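== Sequence, structure tokens ==
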Amino acid sequence: VQLQASGGGLVQAGGSLKLSCAASGRTLSRNVMGWFRQAPGKERVFVASIWRSGTTYYSDSVKGRSTMSRDDAKNTVYLQMDSLKPEDTALYYCAADPSPIFSSQYRVSSYSYWGQGTLVTVSS
């Protein structure tokens, strides 16, 4: 699976961005898809995931401000982020887990395939 993340950019606090992650080589619908982010000098952390059923999970830091969705026909997942804060500034990665375990979906190590990352910068 090759993943291509896009949609990052510079936005003012309170603004919105929609990230996209397009896949090739394997049907995304068979995977759990996740978004992670890594701020400068910090570890990569879980942001959101979407399961084959469409059920989504979010970190507390973005819950209520972000919506993850998938379009299986386009083999693409999305992360709509609203009410952005300066602390949301990070490199955002999409990832695919072909053999998901519910309790492990929050771990970086659970995901086998990663996109290259797209930078989100939120100015105050």
